[in-house]
Amino acid sequence: MIEIVKIIAGALILFGAFLSVVATFGVIRLPDVYTRNHAASKSATLGVMSILLGTFLYFWIEHGHFNSRVILAIVFIFATSPVAGHLISRAAYNSGVPLWEKSVQDDLKGKNQIRQAEK
């Protein structure tokens, strides 16, 4: 049973490393701020959470060391990273950063003009 959990922990760590590499390529290759932010916030968040979960499982099973700080880090990243990604994209949009020229739909186009008229 311990060997199975070690394999699962190793797979989670490798999966998290893979997602972090995918996020890196997404930030480098994608065309605009919004898609880059999506790649960074989604892939990197899941990647870091997978690495932390794999680390937690390994040390809990192998050494019997239960570290609640790792669990708190997972919860903190899960709660804050998507919110931060959303706020960064919203700030970029409100400051006038243009969408990629091949973007199909702008959901905030009318809402931003209404806010500017209210001020």
TrEMBL record:
Membrane topology qualifier: Multi-pass membrane protein
Domain of life, source organism: Bacteria
GO cellular component: membrane
InterPro entries: PhaG_MnhG_YufB
TM helices/strands, residue ranges: 7-28, 40-61, 70-93
Molecular function terms from GO: sodium:proton antiporter activity
Swiss-Prot/TrEMBL keywords: Antiport, Membrane, Transmembrane, Transmembrane helix, Transport
Location(s) in or outside the cell: Membrane
Family under the similarity heading: Belongs to the CPA3 antiporters (TC 2.A.63) subunit G family.
Protein name (record): Na+/H+ antiporter subunit G
Organism lineage string: Bacteria, Bacillati, Bacillota, Bacilli, Bacillales
